[in-house]
Amino acid sequence: MRNFYVAYNKRYMEALTNRAKQVERKPMSLLERAYLPAIFKGMAITFGHMFKKRPTINYPEVTRPFSPVFRGLHILNRDEEGRENCTACGLCAVACPAEAITMEAAERKPGEENLYREEKYAAKYEINMLRCIFCGLCEEACPKDAIYLSETFAPANFQRKGFIYGKEDLLIPNPVTEPEAYAKAKGGRVQIK
Amino acid sequence: MLLSIELSLILEKLILIIVVVMSSLVIAMYATFAERKVAAIMQDRRGPNRAGPFGLLQPVADGLKLFFKEEIIPNLSSKFLFILGPCLAMLTAMMTGAVIPWGDKVHFFDRDISLQIADINIGILYVFGVVSMGVYGIMIGSWASNNKFSLMGGLRAASQIISYELAMGIALIALLMSTGTLSLKEIVVQQQEHWYSWNIIKQPLGFLIFLICAFAECNRTPFDLPEAENELIGGYHTEYSSMKLGFFLFAEYINMFLSSAVMVSLFFGGYDIPFLNDAAFADKIGVNWIALIHTFVFLFKAAAFLFLFMWVRWTIPRFRYDQLMNLGWKVLIPLALINMLVTGAFILYFGK
Fold first, then answer.
1. What is the DSSP string of B186-220?
2. pTM for the complete prediction?
3. B312 interfaces chain A, CB cutoff of 8 Å
4. What is the ipTM of this complex?
């Protein structure tokens, strides 16, 4: 019967690759039937694995380095005097393919020059991180260097509303008042012109 | 006067029993941890490392979890036997420790205290009796569950242990013929003379058979058919929950530790320190210190065996049931018989 299948396969089932191996069904030799050599061989393999490098990274203590082009959570940028760059022009919202960005513009009042760089600013700026696909088009669309994608990702949350990030979540710390936090948030990639 | 001696003897034995029971519980506890760690390392993983430093508190967390789980006794089970099962498993697992010589003796309060709970002259027979009783826990528990998978597991355990006990016993007869005694203490003392007087040198085949049978008796891979989780759900402990399940799982590790201890004392010189004249060394540093070192050496050897148990578990897949029976009846028993005959002929011919 086996010969029939072999012939059948040869005739009708063209093999896709030449990797197929005919199974040998010879009766086992005495050494093979004793099992022990095979068992020792297997045990040598498992023992060898004890000294192999383990690929696991101890996550909370050690983090995997991100690639330099990683696109993570957004950051709303400030200039070196700590003023917000964003002018609420809405180009990022237009560019966004997932329609994750909403904003409301407002006019800068006299006396607020230290807060906002230009006459118009975003009073409300929200990104829905559940909609966002982290494509980075907002970053490319922004004419004011106001929005950047950072090297972190959104942490888990129990509620949907926790994923709607407002200005207070997105704004980078003020470089004048809290320079360390600013440097940390800036990471290695955000440049200010 | 008579009464005072009796009292101190009882006290001494009581303390010894408590120490042995507690330490074998702790060792079994950490054997579960070691098992998970060894499994992880052999599979290039890291294993439990969150609870405490290096995950050392993991067994405590596991135990607490088992204690706090809901205790379920199935409606249609026979309740008394259902509870008796894990109790018996645990009890018989602990009982073996009574005859194992953990060390020579210590000297406290002008008394020589032997580090063996009971030096009975039929030590090996006792071990055998207790080990074969171990399957009762599994059988009773599985039958009382009123679950076909449990029953299958129990049946498998019973027939497996009966089959392998034969080979184990015959392998031991050869050993007993060469040692001429049934007392474990005596056997250990005999092995202390030279490094080559260990019984593994005299009875390598007997040791191999004994080792394989010990794996089968402990229901360890490749002989873990009674609890084959991918065929029988959980085997004999399918219906068990909470600490009763814990008892079953724990009994397996205690069995492992104590059968390691039995193998060490039968074949690997017990507490003997290799390449060292123990008696002369004892004169140099005192009885108590040598007892301490002896116990540590003994535990070290037992730990090596525990590692072997785990190593084999994470290497070899489970036997099919007919393969298991073939190996037991058609290979191990004839081999053990031949081993016995050869040993007997050797002793007759050389008259030693």
1. HHHHHTTS-GGGSHHHH-HHHHHHHHHHHHHHTT-
2. 0.76
3. yes
4. 0.75
